Amino acid sequence: MTTLPLGQLGYATAVACYEPSLDMHRPTARPFGLTEESTYLYGGWRDESGALHVVERKFCGPMTAGLWLMNTRGGKVSLVPESLQTVRGEVKREYSEDEHHLHGSLLGKAGGAPEEGLDYRLTPGHMAWREGQILELEGDLVGPGIQIGSLDHEEPFFYTSELYRMSGRVLGQQVEGFVFLDHGYWPHGADWKEWRIFNGTQLSWSAFATEFEDGTVEWGQVAIGREGFNFVSVADAKGPVVMDANTRGGIDPDPDDWAQRIGYRDHGGDTWVFELEPGGQMSQFSAARWGGYRAQAGRILRHGEERPVKVAFSWGESFMERFRDEGIGSVDALLGG
Protein backbone atom coordinates (compact mmCIF):
# COMPACT_ATOMS: atom_id res chain seq x y z
CA MET A 1 0.00 0.00 0.00
CA THR A 2 1.32 3.44 -0.97
CA THR A 3 1.12 6.02 1.79
CA LEU A 4 1.98 9.71 2.02
CA PRO A 5 2.99 11.78 5.06
CA LEU A 6 0.15 13.50 6.90
CA GLY A 7 -0.88 16.66 5.05
CA GLN A 8 0.51 15.58 1.67
CA LEU A 9 -2.11 14.65 -0.91
CA GLY A 10 -0.04 14.43 -4.09
CA TYR A 11 -0.48 18.17 -4.67
CA ALA A 12 -4.14 17.64 -5.50
CA THR A 13 -5.32 20.54 -7.65
CA ALA A 14 -8.81 21.90 -8.27
CA VAL A 15 -10.11 24.57 -10.67
CA ALA A 16 -13.36 26.53 -10.81
CA CYS A 17 -14.85 29.87 -11.86
CA TYR A 18 -15.59 32.64 -9.37
CA GLU A 19 -17.49 35.93 -9.35
CA PRO A 20 -14.99 38.82 -9.27
CA SER A 21 -15.24 41.67 -6.77
CA LEU A 22 -13.00 44.57 -5.82
CA ASP A 23 -12.54 43.21 -2.30
CA MET A 24 -10.74 40.10 -3.52
CA HIS A 25 -8.07 42.31 -5.14
CA ARG A 26 -7.06 43.93 -1.86
CA PRO A 27 -3.63 42.77 -0.61
CA THR A 28 -5.29 42.02 2.75
CA ALA A 29 -7.43 39.23 1.24
CA ARG A 30 -6.54 35.82 2.73
CA PRO A 31 -7.97 32.93 0.70
CA PHE A 32 -7.39 29.72 2.69
CA GLY A 33 -5.37 31.84 5.10
CA LEU A 34 -2.65 32.42 2.46
CA THR A 35 -1.04 35.78 1.76
CA GLU A 36 -0.79 37.54 -1.59
CA GLU A 37 2.83 37.15 -2.71
CA SER A 38 2.59 38.36 -6.33
CA THR A 39 0.22 40.31 -8.56
CA TYR A 40 0.62 40.17 -12.33
CA LEU A 41 -0.64 42.35 -15.15
CA TYR A 42 0.23 40.75 -18.48
CA GLY A 43 -1.21 40.22 -21.92
CA GLY A 44 -0.95 40.71 -25.63
CA TRP A 45 -2.49 42.75 -28.41
CA ARG A 46 -1.92 43.62 -32.05
CA ASP A 47 -1.49 46.99 -33.69
CA GLU A 48 -2.80 48.05 -37.10
CA SER A 49 0.27 46.62 -38.85
CA GLY A 50 -0.41 43.18 -37.36
CA ALA A 51 2.62 43.29 -35.03
CA LEU A 52 2.13 41.53 -31.71
CA HIS A 53 2.82 43.42 -28.48
CA VAL A 54 3.45 41.49 -25.26
CA VAL A 55 3.52 43.06 -21.80
CA GLU A 56 4.12 42.04 -18.18
CA ARG A 57 4.28 43.98 -14.93
CA LYS A 58 4.73 42.20 -11.61
CA PHE A 59 4.00 43.63 -8.17
CA CYS A 60 5.28 42.23 -4.87
CA GLY A 61 3.44 44.33 -2.33
CA PRO A 62 3.94 48.00 -3.33
CA MET A 63 7.16 47.19 -5.21
CA THR A 64 7.45 46.63 -8.95
CA ALA A 65 10.47 45.93 -11.16
CA GLY A 66 9.24 47.88 -14.18
CA LEU A 67 7.35 47.06 -17.33
CA TRP A 68 8.38 44.32 -19.75
CA LEU A 69 7.07 45.76 -23.03
CA MET A 70 7.98 43.63 -26.04
CA ASN A 71 6.83 43.41 -29.66
CA THR A 72 7.50 41.60 -32.93
CA ARG A 73 8.08 44.64 -35.15
CA GLY A 74 11.64 43.45 -35.79
CA GLY A 75 10.51 39.92 -36.68
CA LYS A 76 10.80 38.39 -33.18
CA VAL A 77 9.66 39.26 -29.68
CA SER A 78 12.12 41.86 -28.37
CA LEU A 79 12.18 44.29 -25.48
CA VAL A 80 11.53 47.86 -26.60
CA PRO A 81 13.85 50.61 -25.27
CA GLU A 82 10.91 52.54 -23.82
CA SER A 83 10.53 49.79 -21.19
CA LEU A 84 13.59 51.20 -19.45
CA GLN A 85 11.72 54.46 -18.82
CA THR A 86 8.83 52.86 -16.91
CA VAL A 87 8.17 53.01 -13.17
CA ARG A 88 10.18 50.67 -10.95
CA GLY A 89 10.42 50.59 -7.19
CA GLU A 90 7.64 51.61 -4.85
CA VAL A 91 4.19 52.71 -6.04
CA LYS A 92 1.43 54.34 -4.06
CA ARG A 93 -1.61 52.10 -3.51
CA GLU A 94 -5.06 53.47 -2.69
CA TYR A 95 -8.09 51.24 -2.09
CA SER A 96 -11.72 52.28 -1.72
CA GLU A 97 -15.09 50.58 -2.10
CA ASP A 98 -15.39 51.59 -5.74
CA GLU A 99 -11.80 51.90 -7.05
CA HIS A 100 -8.30 50.51 -6.63
CA HIS A 101 -5.61 52.96 -7.73
CA LEU A 102 -1.88 52.22 -8.15
CA HIS A 103 0.29 55.10 -9.30
CA GLY A 104 3.74 56.60 -9.09
CA SER A 105 6.77 58.15 -10.74
CA LEU A 106 9.22 58.32 -7.87
CA LEU A 107 12.41 58.90 -9.84
CA GLY A 108 10.89 61.94 -11.48
CA LYS A 109 9.70 63.32 -8.14
CA ALA A 110 13.11 62.71 -6.60
CA GLY A 111 14.90 64.49 -9.42
CA GLY A 112 16.34 61.31 -10.87
CA ALA A 113 16.30 59.86 -14.38
CA PRO A 114 13.28 60.55 -16.63
CA GLU A 115 10.47 58.11 -15.86
CA GLU A 116 7.04 57.61 -17.40
CA GLY A 117 4.30 57.73 -14.79
CA LEU A 118 2.22 54.68 -13.88
CA ASP A 119 -1.54 55.11 -13.42
CA TYR A 120 -3.59 51.94 -12.96
CA ARG A 121 -7.25 52.01 -11.95
CA LEU A 122 -9.53 49.04 -11.31
CA THR A 123 -13.27 49.60 -10.84
CA PRO A 124 -16.04 46.99 -10.83
CA GLY A 125 -15.83 45.27 -14.23
CA HIS A 126 -13.42 47.81 -15.74
CA MET A 127 -9.66 48.43 -16.00
CA ALA A 128 -7.75 51.53 -17.09
CA TRP A 129 -3.96 51.23 -17.35
CA ARG A 130 -1.56 53.97 -18.41
CA GLU A 131 2.26 54.01 -18.56
CA GLY A 132 2.86 57.68 -19.35
CA GLN A 133 3.09 58.26 -23.11
CA ILE A 134 4.12 54.64 -23.78
CA LEU A 135 0.91 52.76 -23.17
CA GLU A 136 -2.71 53.66 -22.56
CA LEU A 137 -5.31 50.87 -22.41
CA GLU A 138 -8.87 50.56 -21.22
CA GLY A 139 -11.38 47.75 -21.24
CA ASP A 140 -13.95 45.54 -19.53
CA LEU A 141 -13.96 42.29 -17.62
CA VAL A 142 -14.86 39.21 -19.65
CA GLY A 143 -17.18 37.11 -17.50
CA PRO A 144 -16.14 35.29 -14.32
CA GLY A 145 -12.62 34.66 -13.11
CA ILE A 146 -10.75 31.37 -12.80
CA GLN A 147 -9.36 30.06 -9.51
CA ILE A 148 -6.74 27.32 -9.07
CA GLY A 149 -5.85 25.67 -5.81
CA SER A 150 -3.25 23.02 -4.93
CA LEU A 151 -3.52 21.34 -1.53
CA ASP A 152 -0.48 20.63 0.61
CA HIS A 153 0.33 21.02 4.31
CA GLU A 154 3.78 22.57 3.75
CA GLU A 155 3.56 24.19 0.30
CA PRO A 156 -0.04 25.12 -0.54
CA PHE A 157 -0.82 27.30 -3.53
CA PHE A 158 -3.81 29.39 -4.63
CA TYR A 159 -4.13 31.47 -7.80
CA THR A 160 -6.77 33.72 -9.34
CA SER A 161 -7.03 35.07 -12.87
CA GLU A 162 -9.34 37.54 -14.60
CA LEU A 163 -9.44 38.57 -18.24
CA TYR A 164 -10.06 42.08 -19.57
CA ARG A 165 -10.75 42.87 -23.24
CA MET A 166 -8.65 45.99 -23.88
CA SER A 167 -8.08 48.61 -26.55
CA GLY A 168 -6.05 51.80 -26.75
CA ARG A 169 -2.63 52.97 -27.91
CA VAL A 170 0.84 51.52 -27.41
CA LEU A 171 3.94 53.30 -28.77
CA GLY A 172 1.65 55.51 -30.84
CA GLN A 173 -0.21 52.62 -32.48
CA GLN A 174 -3.87 51.71 -32.04
CA VAL A 175 -4.14 48.22 -30.53
CA GLU A 176 -6.71 45.71 -29.32
CA GLY A 177 -6.29 42.57 -27.31
CA PHE A 178 -6.28 41.24 -23.75
CA VAL A 179 -4.87 41.85 -20.27
CA PHE A 180 -4.88 39.27 -17.48
CA LEU A 181 -5.04 40.32 -13.84
CA ASP A 182 -3.67 37.51 -11.67
CA HIS A 183 -2.84 37.02 -7.99
CA GLY A 184 -0.65 34.30 -6.49
CA TYR A 185 -0.99 33.22 -2.85
CA TRP A 186 1.27 30.99 -0.77
CA PRO A 187 2.90 31.16 2.68
CA HIS A 188 4.91 34.34 3.08
CA GLY A 189 8.68 34.27 2.67
CA ALA A 190 9.34 32.94 -0.85
CA ASP A 191 9.29 34.57 -4.26
CA TRP A 192 7.57 32.75 -7.11
CA LYS A 193 10.88 31.65 -8.61
CA GLU A 194 11.81 30.15 -5.24
CA TRP A 195 8.53 28.26 -4.95
CA ARG A 196 7.76 24.60 -5.55
CA ILE A 197 5.85 24.96 -8.82
CA PHE A 198 8.45 27.03 -10.66
CA ASN A 199 11.30 24.90 -9.34
CA GLY A 200 10.00 21.46 -10.25
CA THR A 201 6.26 20.85 -10.42
CA GLN A 202 5.42 22.84 -13.56
CA LEU A 203 6.23 21.37 -16.98
CA SER A 204 4.10 23.87 -18.86
CA TRP A 205 1.59 26.52 -17.87
CA SER A 206 -0.19 28.75 -20.40
CA ALA A 207 -2.76 31.52 -20.21
CA PHE A 208 -4.77 32.30 -23.33
CA ALA A 209 -7.62 34.38 -24.70
CA THR A 210 -9.36 34.19 -28.07
CA GLU A 211 -12.03 36.42 -29.54
CA PHE A 212 -13.86 34.87 -32.50
CA GLU A 213 -15.43 36.80 -35.36
CA ASP A 214 -18.89 36.08 -33.89
CA GLY A 215 -17.91 38.11 -30.80
CA THR A 216 -17.47 35.14 -28.46
CA VAL A 217 -14.44 35.31 -26.15
CA GLU A 218 -12.99 32.07 -24.79
CA TRP A 219 -10.06 32.11 -22.37
CA GLY A 220 -8.33 30.03 -19.79
CA GLN A 221 -5.42 28.74 -17.76
CA VAL A 222 -4.01 25.31 -18.72
CA ALA A 223 -1.11 23.34 -17.25
CA ILE A 224 0.85 20.10 -17.40
CA GLY A 225 2.81 19.20 -14.30
CA ARG A 226 4.08 16.61 -11.92
CA GLU A 227 1.93 15.01 -9.23
CA GLY A 228 -1.57 16.49 -9.35
CA PHE A 229 -0.66 19.84 -10.92
CA ASN A 230 -2.53 19.27 -14.20
CA PHE A 231 -5.56 21.24 -15.32
CA VAL A 232 -7.60 22.66 -18.19
CA SER A 233 -9.71 25.59 -17.01
CA VAL A 234 -11.54 27.42 -19.80
CA ALA A 235 -14.34 29.98 -19.48
CA ASP A 236 -16.34 32.43 -21.57
CA ALA A 237 -18.53 35.41 -20.71
CA LYS A 238 -21.29 33.13 -19.39
CA GLY A 239 -19.22 30.87 -17.16
CA PRO A 240 -17.16 27.68 -17.23
CA VAL A 241 -16.56 25.86 -20.53
CA VAL A 242 -14.20 23.18 -19.16
CA MET A 243 -13.00 22.85 -15.57
CA ASP A 244 -10.86 19.74 -15.36
CA ALA A 245 -7.94 18.76 -13.14
CA ASN A 246 -7.32 15.36 -14.71
CA THR A 247 -5.36 16.21 -17.86
CA ARG A 248 -2.54 14.95 -20.07
CA GLY A 249 0.01 16.76 -22.21
CA GLY A 250 2.12 16.65 -25.34
CA ILE A 251 5.02 18.79 -26.57
CA ASP A 252 6.75 19.55 -29.87
CA PRO A 253 10.10 21.25 -29.13
CA ASP A 254 12.56 22.78 -31.55
CA PRO A 255 16.36 22.14 -31.34
CA ASP A 256 16.78 25.08 -28.93
CA ASP A 257 14.08 23.80 -26.53
CA TRP A 258 11.39 26.30 -27.45
CA ALA A 259 7.90 24.83 -27.66
CA GLN A 260 6.48 24.93 -31.18
CA ARG A 261 3.27 23.27 -29.97
CA ILE A 262 1.95 22.21 -26.58
CA GLY A 263 -1.12 20.04 -26.16
CA TYR A 264 -3.36 20.05 -23.09
CA ARG A 265 -5.95 17.25 -23.17
CA ASP A 266 -8.91 17.37 -20.81
CA HIS A 267 -10.70 14.36 -19.35
CA GLY A 268 -13.52 14.72 -21.88
CA GLY A 269 -11.12 14.08 -24.77
CA ASP A 270 -10.74 17.63 -26.12
CA THR A 271 -7.19 18.89 -26.68
CA TRP A 272 -6.26 22.56 -26.39
CA VAL A 273 -3.23 23.29 -28.56
CA PHE A 274 -0.73 26.10 -28.10
CA GLU A 275 0.95 27.19 -31.35
CA LEU A 276 3.98 29.47 -31.33
CA GLU A 277 3.71 32.92 -32.90
CA PRO A 278 6.31 33.40 -35.68
CA GLY A 279 9.22 34.93 -33.79
CA GLY A 280 7.30 34.41 -30.55
CA GLN A 281 10.23 33.19 -28.44
CA MET A 282 10.59 35.61 -25.50
CA SER A 283 14.34 35.09 -25.35
CA GLN A 284 15.22 38.22 -23.33
CA PHE A 285 12.44 37.64 -20.81
CA SER A 286 13.45 33.99 -20.45
CA ALA A 287 17.14 34.82 -20.05
CA ALA A 288 16.27 36.83 -16.93
CA ARG A 289 15.08 33.57 -15.32
CA TRP A 290 16.65 30.18 -14.73
CA GLY A 291 16.07 26.44 -14.51
CA GLY A 292 15.47 26.01 -18.23
CA TYR A 293 12.47 28.36 -18.23
CA ARG A 294 11.09 29.28 -21.66
CA ALA A 295 8.33 31.84 -22.26
CA GLN A 296 6.78 32.13 -25.68
CA ALA A 297 3.90 34.02 -27.30
CA GLY A 298 1.31 32.33 -29.46
CA ARG A 299 -2.30 31.29 -29.38
CA ILE A 300 -4.37 28.37 -28.08
CA LEU A 301 -7.39 26.84 -29.78
CA ARG A 302 -9.33 23.68 -29.14
CA HIS A 303 -8.22 21.06 -31.69
CA GLY A 304 -10.73 21.07 -34.53
CA GLU A 305 -11.98 24.60 -33.84
CA GLU A 306 -13.45 26.05 -37.05
CA ARG A 307 -14.74 29.46 -35.97
CA PRO A 308 -12.83 32.37 -37.57
CA VAL A 309 -10.57 34.15 -35.10
CA LYS A 310 -10.58 37.94 -34.71
CA VAL A 311 -7.75 38.30 -32.15
CA ALA A 312 -5.94 35.71 -30.04
CA PHE A 313 -3.07 35.66 -27.57
CA SER A 314 -1.39 33.11 -25.33
CA TRP A 315 1.50 33.41 -22.90
CA GLY A 316 3.02 29.93 -22.77
CA GLU A 317 5.71 28.70 -20.39
CA SER A 318 7.63 25.44 -20.52
CA PHE A 319 10.57 23.56 -19.02
CA MET A 320 11.71 21.21 -21.77
CA GLU A 321 14.13 19.14 -19.69
CA ARG A 322 11.29 18.27 -17.32
CA PHE A 323 9.19 17.08 -20.27
CA ARG A 324 12.02 14.74 -21.26
CA ASP A 325 12.45 13.52 -17.69
CA GLU A 326 8.74 12.64 -17.56
CA GLY A 327 8.76 10.98 -21.01
CA ILE A 328 6.02 13.24 -22.40
CA GLY A 329 5.39 12.54 -26.09
CA SER A 330 4.46 14.71 -29.07
CA VAL A 331 1.24 16.64 -29.62
CA ASP A 332 0.35 14.31 -32.51
CA ALA A 333 0.70 11.31 -30.20
CA LEU A 334 -1.57 13.06 -27.69
CA LEU A 335 -4.16 13.80 -30.39
CA GLY A 336 -4.04 10.20 -31.55
CA GLY A 337 -4.45 8.84 -28.04
Describe this structure in words.
The protein has 337 residues and is mostly beta strands. Helices cover 8% and strands 55% of the residues. It contains 5 helices and 23 strands. The chain starts with 7 loop residues before the first strand and ends with a helix.
Instruction: Label the structural class.
Output: mainly beta
Summed up, the domain count is 1
The residue fraction in helices comes out at: under 10%
Total count of helical runs of at least 4 residues: 5
Largest sheet: 14 strands, antiparallel
Which radius of gyration do the C-alpha atoms yield?
19 Å
> What is the number of strand segments?
23
Distance between the termini: 30 Å
Poorly predicted tracts of residues? none
What value does the average pLDDT take? Answer: 94
| Molecular shape | globular
Beta content: over 45%
Order of helices and strands: EEEEEEEEHEEEEEEHEEEEEEEHEEHH
Protein name: DUF2804 domain-containing protein
